[in-house]
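Possible race condition, two jobs.
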Amino acid sequence: MNYTFNDYLEENFRDIIADAAQEMLDEDNIRGISAKVIDVSIKQIDITKLLQTDDHAEFPVIICAVIRTCEDDRVYRQNVEMKGSISGTFSELFRDFSIKLRSISCVKANSRRQKYTQTLLPEHSKNKMEQIAEEILDMAYPFLDVYHRPQRIDPIYMAKKFGIKCYFVQLGESFSIRGRYVFKGEEIKVFYPNEKMNKNVSVPANTILVDKRLNTKKEAVHFTVMHELIHAIVHRYALWLKLMYDGESCSLACPAGVFESHSFKDMFLEIMEKQADNIAAYVLMPAPAFKKKAEEILNSYGCIRTPDCIKEAADRIASFFGVSVSAARRRLIELGFDEFKGVYNFVDNKYVPPFVFRKGTLASHETFVISEEQVKLLVRENRKLRSYFSRDLVRFAENHVVLNEPEYIYRDNKGMHLTKFAREHIDCCAFKYDLLCFSLEQKNTTQNSMDTMLRMVGSTMSVQLIMSDSNTSMEEKAELLNERKKDITEISKKIGGSFPEALTAVVEWSDMKKGEIAQAAWTDEKTLYNLCHDDEIRVSMETVVRLCIAMNLPTEVSYRLLNCSGNPPKAVASDIAFIQFLDAPSLYTIGDCNKILAAQGSRTLGGKEPGI
């Protein structure tokens, strides 16, 4: 249903407006011409300062009057605009409406946009809602610049400042309503668990009711009280307007599982709920103060920021402001902290492990994260991506499509995973997607998932994803990988027979000089020469592993070389400890490997470090 303040006043008080217009016309008619107002309409009501208005309100108004004049036996019709003010009391449903017109103007009404619409709801733009949040904070904390100085905002304290009482009760047997704002006294059903029954309780006007089951999560209590407080401060006029139209309810119940199709009877209430969520977030996390604190916390980690650092920073920022980490994350991304796109991505009913990427890698509409269902859909629809999967150039791991390289991906008994290197350089190995129909809410919520129902969980996944146009470099890498795989296949065919023959073929294939290989493998050129030419030398697994790491050999080639050396890997602790490095040899030096093995209590790869 459409509710507009203008229409309500015109429909109910047209005669009063017409009489005021006629009176104004008579006062202005200095020539004594016969003139009569035959129709009136409200052209514009200036509700810019609605937030500062009490129950009784007075607004500047411009009305359009259709005038019929008679002069020299001729009848004329014309439209004129009259300026003045209207007043009335919201709690009286504007039944005490009055209008005062002061002048007739030939100037057209100013069509500038206001902070409020004629539904008495704020404008939908982010800037308008940010302005309203700042005004609310100034009203609640008149002597503290909390908009610019970082500190935790206390919604219950603010409610007291605005003369609104808060009570914690159980709003129903099932957890379907998280809060309710009562703007005019009425009886509300409250559930009593001990008696297992609902009872009608008389609740006075200007009261916030919060479901007491939220008390297990302080951040949920904070957000819910602030959400209801926004209804009380910002939406009270819209709620009165709704009551003027339908006379149904003197309170507004806010569902826990918001944005579900069955939650609202009309768009008016849905807009109100979304605005309450947004403005509540802007009040709890005011932009200047929030940015200042976020920068302070981020700077405490220095220049090198790992995925774990970013995740911890999100936790610290959320804790400081007393909000859920998903709410803090959304605010951070909204204010330009793109690095937080890599943490707390809730997809496929789980959190994606954190990752980081170079600044400027992602556009505002792009993401690296994709659900399993969306991957399957894209593979069916995108021929190029389907080709990459069919040629085993890419794999799906941790809700990313990444290049199938050992330095980026590995498998264990729980499935495919990204390496530490990949999570720290996700832009080097993962495809990007454009977000369509962007949604911050997770669908298919469960009745028992309080986190999801209370918007504690935020997903950056959209209803639909398409391959990003900025994947060009990744596609080039995939094709290079394809060429490299062909090259690996060729060298693998050449590795056979004796170990010296196999090693010689690999050394030539590596494009490294023997001196470089010897130094990186912690050996000397003479030993390397002998290994390439002497069939009688017995070579150890440690030596072969050192050579593989030195030449950064692909895993397939390393295993072929081990087999030729007479040291095929066995399922024993010592062999497993050695070959763990062959899955991503480029990530380690021999020194790194020995330190890790020593820490594990395993024997090292041996060798002598160059220069020692």
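Job #2 (started ~2 s after job #1):
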Amino acid sequence: MSAESNISSFRSQSQLVDRSLLVMVFGLLAFLVSAGAALTFKIESDSSLARDAVQEKARIERRIGSIISFVRDIVSDVRLVANATHLQRFLASNVPSELEHFERDIEVFVAAKSIYDQVRYIDESGMERVRVDMDQGRPLKIAQDQLQNKGQRYFFLDTMTLAQGEIYISPFDLNVEAGKVEMPFRPMIRLATPLFDPAGQRRGIAILNYRGNDLLARLNRAGDASVEPIELLNRDGFWLKSRYPADEWGFMLGRTETLATMHPDIWQRMQSEASGQMTSGGTLWTWSRIYPLQQGVYSSSGSAEPVGGSQASLTAGDYYWIALSRVERGMLSPNELARVVRYGVLWCVALMLAWCFSWAIALRQGRLNVATAQLIETRSQSEHILSAAGEGICGVDAAGHPVFINAAARRMLGWTEEDGQLDVPPEIVACLTPAGGDGSFQGSALDKTLRDGSYRQVLDDSFRRKDGTAFPVEYTVSPIKRDGQITGAVMVFRDVSERRRIEGELARYRDHLEAEVQSRTAELRLAKEAAETANVAKSAFLANMSHEMRTPLHQVGAMAELILLESLTPKQTDRLDKLMGACNRLESIISSILSLTWLEAGKLELQETVFDVRQFVDEALANLREKAALQHRRLEVDVSGLQSPVIGDTEYLARALGNYVDNALRFSETGSIVIRAKELERDEQSTLIRFEVEDQGEGIAAEDLPKLFRHFEQIDNSSTRHVGGLGVGLATTRKIASIMGGEAGCSSERGKGSLFWFTVRLKTRIDH
């Protein structure tokens, strides 16, 4: 078809379009499309902003967890220095050579750690006796004539008031040398503990100056998804780390600008909520407090003056920093422009489709109007065709008087040949009204079409015959127009009695089928509910596993980042060791999860072998002995009195025993661990053996004992617990013991350690 013929066809189609209907339908569809697009865009934008706000809060919480964990590590370092062998010998004997040995040990310590600016021993008068500084990456021993008296500094005065074993953490401030703030700024956190000689006399303090820049760097790591850095404030609202460096360390420089003075509404909210979010001035503020103090660790308000004591002491609840991020709302949705473009394109496409749909409807209506007009024009020529039609056809004029009725209509309405075929009886119109009515033409479908000129289609109605009997019908009523004026109407109807009968039969079959479907649906619903229940349990498992894997993964990320920033040195080798330790821990977690999954699924198949129990215990503890040696711990084994050989699955038996010993190493810090195996009963076929693991840890409170051996639960299930784990080890051991015909349990008391045990029934007779 040529282009000219296509254009001609389009023009002819356009002449048939009902333009008023086109405008009405398109206007309505355009309004609905625009409103829907705007509402959807707003909902998606709000959802994106809310999701980004949650991510910003999670980012701060991750950083806080890392900082708290690190502070615990450096607290351990000050205890290590205070308990150094040569320092303790010096305090007991006052022999100068011991102090020289201690000084050399501190040089090694500073070089290995590389995060401390100074490590010192200050005697009871406040005079520095030993001081090792980190100078350009290397430890530097300070000569005796350069040592200073720190007797009037707040950190010395506050530490000297503590009891033996207690730790003092100073406020986060700047380093002061010779009574002046050192330039350039050197942020410091001082960790100290009092020293005592064997007679209980105070002999000064051991103090470590931790480089605060290292902690500040941990707030904002490379690759952070947010474009805004996390800021850090002290409890008084002074900036320790700010997006604007000029705001930092104001309290050390005599300035009064704080968050409280610059943003009082934000500060007031922070005072009432330890963590939260709010929007002010188009900026999303997210904050959370960091409480680094542990039990037995204290602090004070400190002093901004080079000389002078603190104004007040601080407990764990009073000493905190505030991690803060402030993000402009526009920064939270970097893809906002792309979203606007996408919705704009979709809106245009939807309008085009609405126009096409409206055009099709208007064209259809226009064609129908033209067809109706043509029907009126050709009525005389087509009456003989209509008379031969199988459907009833009746035409009326504008006043509702019948002017035409075909033979099929006469037959269905009960008019016989004796009633005359040429005349159209006026009363026949009453038969074309609903059978349940009074037979009045007023209000009938014909009357309504003559009034409003609308086409009508009725699929469920009934007419009455001449003798008054009713029959079901379907009919249409079309207006007849000339020059825009209604000149009559045509009704086309059919008797649907037979079809209704067939539909009734089909309905009965359908009802029977629906009953069958409902029965099957109920069965499927039960199966679906069971599957959903299983899925909930699976989801809880995966969520707990994901949470616990986060800590070692953070360690992996931190160590990898450090390696990327520097060339390989002894320090990086040490960090690589830590990285591998985290990886091994992650592998252990995954292994435990998979083991428990297999056990719960009932897929465990015991691989029975003949073995010697005493030799088995030695082999099972081989790797754990190395771990104990690294902790300076000892594993004591008592397997005397056992008879061998026996038959059982050594792999799962070793896993059950290893879970107990590994827990004892992780949850008790000192003392030896005793592993026992003894025979409880024996016959010709089997023996019942009890394995015990006893530690000298803190013990478990009676109210916490019921929590043991539950899936994915520990006594401390908080995200900041000191010792990690998924809580599957004990559950796995109990399951293995049960499969091997035994039980598992624990007896413990606070302060007296814990004894974990399990029993297994092993075969004693070898069947050939």
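The longest strand covers residues 470-482.
Logs attached separately.
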